[in-house]
Amino acid sequence: MKNLIKFIVRFHFFILFILIEFFSLFLVFFYNKKQKETFINSSNLISGFIYENTNKITSYISLKDINKQLILENTIFHNNKINSSRSNFSEFTNIVDTIKFFQQYKYTNAKIINNSIQKQNNYITLNKGSKQGIERDMAVISPDGIIGIVKNVSNNFASVISVLNIQIGISAKIKNNNYFGSLVWEGKNYKIMNLEEIPNHVNISIGDTIITSGYSTIFPEGIIIGRISSFKKDKSKNFYHISVKLNNDFKHISHVYVIGNLLKAEQKKLEISENNGS
User: What's the CATH class of domain 105-263?
Assistant: First the structure.
């Protein structure tokens, strides 16, 4: 308190001058309409500029964290999906037990760190490996469609056979009629694949949606692949030649989901036993 008093006594002329200045400005701006409007407009302009640029900087800094959070939330959402046709069982059991019992697929998010589309046998590298639960023959998708199948895994990385690879075929079907066939790539246009083995008596149209059939232990049923862009009948084979425009743009994919089938071993064991029995 003594120091404050000493300070005021020492600089009382200067403090008085500042107070008079503020009072004079107050009288000028608030009792003269033109000066008041100028002052308000100027202060609003300055504060608006500061807030706008501060918000831009803050948004840019937090954008990376927001993207990570969205990817994590999507992964959690996929992992907690329950088969809707079985949802009535929740009336008889705890919801947590229901999720654990009916969850067939586990989703893990990953980032693409290498990607090729110009070769006939294209591969993709992910930044997740065996330490993060990635295994061979897991499906890889993006929010826009299918990507490929995991081929090899190291501790922290995984190589993926892209669907843009002439060596693999994906079981796919036409959404509106459930006719299924094999989806293959001819090694030319990275936007187009062919759906084979669809009988030419089936009614199809340009724009029909193509999805995964679920007839394997790799891809779940119903994942978007693309839409029919053209088709013609192959009379010599009684099948259509169908071109499918992929929903994914392989030049712009960056984040993906790796899907593990938790019931794959059980399904394969049953199918092997049935084949051996026949």
Answer: mainly beta
How many angstroms separate the Cα of 265 from the Cα of each of 33, 178, 246, 268, 275? 82, 26, 30, 5, 15
Q: Where are the domains of the chain?
A: 1-30, 105-263
Question: Degrees (nearest 5) of the Cα angle 131, 170, 68?
Answer: 40
Measured between alpha carbons, how far is 42 from 20 in angstroms, rounded to an integer? 23
Helical pair 2-10 and 12-30, crossing angle rounded to 10 deg = 70
Q: How many CA atoms lie less than 13 Å away from 127 in the CB half-sphere?
A: 8
The SS3 assignment for 137 reads coil
- What digits encode the pLDDT tens for the residues 190-223? 999 999 999 999 999 999 999 999 988 899 999 9
Question: What are the tens digits of pLDDT across the range 232-275?
Answer: 987 778 899 999 999 999 999 989 999 999 888 887 788 787 77
**What are the distances in angstroms from CA 246 to CA 11, 28, 175, 211, 240?**
77, 69, 15, 10, 18
Helix (H) / strand (E) containing 95: helix 95-102
Going by C-alpha positions, the residue among 216, 267, 257 that lies closest to residue 133 is: 257
264 with 138: CB under 8 angstroms? no
**Three-state SS sequence of 36-86:** HHHHHHHHHHHHHHHHHHHHHHHHHHHHHHHHHHHHHHHHHHHHCCCCHHH
What is the distance between the alpha carbons of residues 235 and 228, in angstroms, rounded to a whole number? 19
Taking the C-alpha atoms of residue 1 and residue 233, their distance in angstroms, rounded to an integer, is 98
Residues whose CB is less than 8 angstroms from the CB of residue 224 and which lie 6 or more positions away in sequence, other chains included: 144, 145, 146, 209, 210, 211, 247
Indicate the angle between helix axes 33-79 and 12-30, nearest 10 degrees. 90
